[in-house]
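Name: Sizzled
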Amino acid sequence: MALFFILAVLAMSCPLMAFDIGQSTRCVTIPNQMKVCKDVGYSEMRLPNFLGHSNLEGEVVPRSEDWKPLLQTGCHPQAQAFLCSLIAPVCLDTFIQPCRSLCVAVRDSCAPVLACQGHPWPEALDCDRFPAEEDMCLSPHVKFGHFAKDLPKAACQNCPSVEEAPAMKTVMDAFCQHDFAVTAKLHRRRLLMGEPEFEVEGRVEFVRQGPLLPYDTQHLLQQWMLINTRCANVLVRPGRSQLYVLTGSVQPDGTLTISRLFPWHKKDANIAVATRKWKHHRC
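Structure predicted for Sizzled:
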C-alpha cells in the first residue's frame, strides 16, 4: 500500500498547466480495464488528458489504477469525479476542468490520508491552478446532509496497542474504559489488481455497541484499515486472517479511534470469559 502513494505522487508530478488546451485532441471510449473511471457517469474521454497523457494503454490506464487504493478509503464522496476529470476528462465541445472549490473539498478530506502514509498533497494538484468560476468548471454539485456528518468516520491515528494473551481483568477494564468493543476478523489479501488489500471478513459482533451503528461498523473498520495501512500491516499478514477484540472511542469530531486490540486465539479462554461476563458486569 505504501508503494501506491509513491507511485501516485510520481504519476501526478508533471505540471498540470503544461497541457495546452489549444492542442489537437481526440475522443476515445473509456476502456473496461480503466476501472477507476468506468462508472464515472460518461463513456467517452478526451486525449491527451489534463495531465498531458496521450497514450491510453501505456500511460492513462496504468496510472489511473494507482489511485484506486486512495478512492477505496472513501476519503471524499467526489474524489473519483475530481480525479477522473483530470485523468479521463469528459468529451464535450469545451474543456471542463474541476473547479477550485471541488479541488479544495477533496484535498481537505483526502490529503490527511496521504499524510498518514508520510506523503504530501501533490504539487500538481495545487487547487490554485483550477478555475474559480463555478459555471465554467466541474463544481461540488452534490450537497451532503447532516445525516452523513453524524456517522462515525475512520481517520488517521497512532497505531493502537496489541496485547497478546491478556488477563480477564485487562479485557474487562478495556471494555469499561472505551465507548465500544467489538470482535472482528481482519483479513489481508495477497495483492491483486483492483482489490482492497485489507477487509473485514464476516460479521462484526458487538460486545459493547456504544455509538457505533450495526449496519455501518463493518465498513467503518475496513475504511480504518485502508487509511491506517501502517497499523494494518502489523495486525495481519498477507493471505491471512486474524480474529480480534477491538476497543475504542468515537471522538467529539466524529472520528473513530481504536485504542486496544486483543488477538483472539482458540487458547485464549480469558477473552471468551470476559465477553460472556460483560453482560452482567458493572464498571
